[in-house]
Amino acid sequence: MTEARIQAGAPAQGIHGAGGGTQVLDPTYEGDFVLDEHLLLESGRTLAGVTLHYAVYGRLNAARDNAVLVCHALSGSALVGSWWPEIFAPGAVLSLEHDFVICINLLGSCYGSTGPGSVDPETGQAYGPDFPLVSIRDNVRAQARLLDSLGVHRLRLVLGGSIGGMQALDWTILYPERVERAAIIAAAPVSAMGLALNHLQRRAIENDPEWEGGRYLPQRPPRRGLALARQIGMISYKSAALLEERFGRNPNRNGENPWGLDDQGGGLIGGRFDVAGYLDHQGQRFIDRFDANAYLAILRMMDTWDPLRGYSSASEAFSRIRAQLTFVGISSDWLFPPETVRRFADTIGAAGVRADYREMASDHGHDAFLAEQVELVRLLQ
Amino acid sequence: MTEARIQAGAPAQGIHGAGGGTQVLDPTYEGDFVLDEHLLLESGRTLAGVTLHYAVYGRLNAARDNAVLVCHALSGSALVGSWWPEIFAPGAVLSLEHDFVICINLLGSCYGSTGPGSVDPETGQAYGPDFPLVSIRDNVRAQARLLDSLGVHRLRLVLGGSIGGMQALDWTILYPERVERAAIIAAAPVSAMGLALNHLQRRAIENDPEWEGGRYLPQRPPRRGLALARQIGMISYKSAALLEERFGRNPNRNGENPWGLDDQGGGLIGGRFDVAGYLDHQGQRFIDRFDANAYLAILRMMDTWDPLRGYSSASEAFSRIRAQLTFVGISSDWLFPPETVRRFADTIGAAGVRADYREMASDHGHDAFLAEQVELVRLLQ
């Protein structure tokens, strides 16, 4: 199917949830790929019976030179046509007519690929907290096996934002001969502030007694902890300017009074401001669609990403790259600040890689790569 | 006592805890003032048997024109000589020889003034969650009664950072004839991002089942929730640049391995990075010195601060001011960004008030008014 289907208000699958009313695309095929052998992980552990859930859009041409891999971010899914539809708009970055677009759910996630909620074939029980660290690099290696099975040896483009950008770069280092171009959007090794924010999200989940050390039952997940983690994440995805413009110091739109007394007449909590109502709403939406252990697994995958790990120098790692790289920073992103992305691109360029840097002017913050797709497309064209 | 006593490593009482090894000063007097009638609050409720815990440094002179009020921030105390000692250094802002310095613990706090942990004389029980909203303005009105009792009618200076700055400004609006100068440091009405951060801190405490709706026993407080709240606060008090410089992506200095497996062999949590170890340490330190309900009371005091509340316009409120105001923004403060403080100063200046703005160049973030006192003193001189 190569035509867009309008699904106003369809549930967003993006990292942070895009607005409703966006055109979303149905995949040509959506299914599972099961690795026929154990996946050897960077940690030294192996993962058995690995399933990758993936979606493809368009068809691989006879020359097999039209394949594109899109890598998703923290809470995304394989359904890139649902969370990044504007990338497929006529004349945009990808074409359903000319490209064969693959998107693969991350290992560790809860949208079809093997993750903490999956059954460990060796125990017959869900992994839960026993799920190993599956790194970005581990993911890329598994993805390569899936592409092999699809007959895709070479990618004309690999791209992604945030954790998706980390995967894209690792593709160019691990499989230099397989990637022609890569677009790495709002990504760099996680800064100390990013590590701090992720740590707080981890603590929010761990603090929830329903988490049970990761051994919660699916019907009794740590909802409050995951909701708070998501809210902490949300503030890092948005700029202060955007929150100010949207919410300011307005009382919650449902009529709560921040200056009033609590229901019981006390005053420790009080009526919410609008931004608090918004964050609570985002937290509630998220717990209906995501799993706490999967969230922890991916936070850690993000934290531990270091493209230099195992190489003796930046030059040794980055000089492997053959692809042409485009880095995109977002002007108001404080999770991956544009100057950090630019410096990262410069470091890679210094290793002799063709790497250009472009900046997206947006007050949306990190989320802009999902929230302002039309602007992003303009920049990538 | 007018001489400094060196207490290397004495426990810091500042809003966010200063480093050890600072000279701290003993007060001339530290004690309680009990209001002889109920305090009528902005909310319409009254608070009975109100106690203000306070400290004074130096002596009131015969002309009674050497009084200075220092207002403390979220988790500060009346012991300004302990948390802001450099302000008293020879030739700095305040002089133990020439000034009579008063500092009063906030109502709602847990350092001696009436707060949620105090006994409600009308029930004989601790207030707990029944403690009413006590606003910044309510605090200032109570403080004025205490100054009356000390024979202080006029302040040559009132100053404070963060919530302390909010009190300082309210002093100039509520008691225009009583204040000669005010220094308002790193303060403005809380932005949407600030409201968001405070909301997350509130949720962290509420999510802790030990909070018990605010009715926890003193020996069984919501320690994990309060520690997480503090950690969320900490990241807002520090700049990303400072965290990067201090911690970068280093593993926790105790030797944990962020790439290793968990104790049980799984990989959802992992060894901490250094910044995470630091935040956990800050959280642990805080729960030994602060109370969760007091924290909630002061968060709300901060959120609801609006110097225009009850006035028909900014002009009506600010044109009451007779004092000369100095605003200080901190270059790397993202909780109260310098441009916000500057705009706030401009707004007040536009009402005909003598208001100047100075910017402190520091990469410490909001905390700089405590962490870089020598720089602050230089700016205020």
Question: Which features does this protein show?
Answer:
homodimer; 381 residues; alpha/beta; 8-stranded mixed beta sheet; disordered N terminus
Polypeptide structure, described:
The structure is a homodimer of 381-residue chains. By secondary structure, chain A is α/β, with parallel strands linked by helices. Chain A is built from twelve helices and twelve strands. In chain A, the strands form three sheets. In chain A, strands 1-4-6-5-9-10-11-12 form an eight-stranded mixed β-sheet, with helices on both faces. A two-stranded antiparallel ribbon of chain A has the order 2-3. The first copy, chain A, has a two-stranded antiparallel sheet with strand order 7-8. Chain A is globular and about 70 Å long. At the A-B interface, helix 4, helix 5, helix 6, helix 7 and helix 8 of A face helix 4, helix 5, helix 6, helix 7 and helix 8 of B.
